[in-house]
Small GTP-binding domain containing protein
Amino acid sequence: MSNTLLQIWDTAGQERFQSPSVAFYRGADCCVLVHDVNVMKSFDDLNNWREEFLIQACPPDPENFPFVVLGNKIDIDGGNSRVVSEKKAKAGCTPKGNIPYFETSAKEGFNVEGAFECIAKIALKNEPLEEISSYLPDAIDAAAGQQHKSSGCEC
């Protein structure tokens, strides 16, 4: 039985992590961009982070490279401090190739599992079917390009 290793690198969106990111980005199968729904600048910076990733990673097909966007910290202050609406965030994902968008709370664990299930399926789409069929039955559907309706993933 073969195993697949998912490596998740969190650069925390900080400038000091940009220089070593080239080594981490190369060979990536998916990129997750996260913004704080309570901080407009974090949302406004998403496109810059996307472009920087594409420059650093040099994927073979940058126009079709898969991204997922997470709007995090939806648990804060009962939503009263929220400045980026779900509608605005989803609209920002649509012009860039229908990027899957999830609203999450890392603190409360809300929608984190569904988001990472989608991320894993996107990453596995590039794996040969014979390598993934023995250890992840749902991955066959994902690799075949079928939509997994229960996760909310637009894969």
About this structure: Residues 22-125 form a domain with the Rossmann fold fold (CATH 3.40.50.300). Residues 129-137, 139-155 have pLDDT under 50 and may be disordered. The radius of gyration is 16 Å.
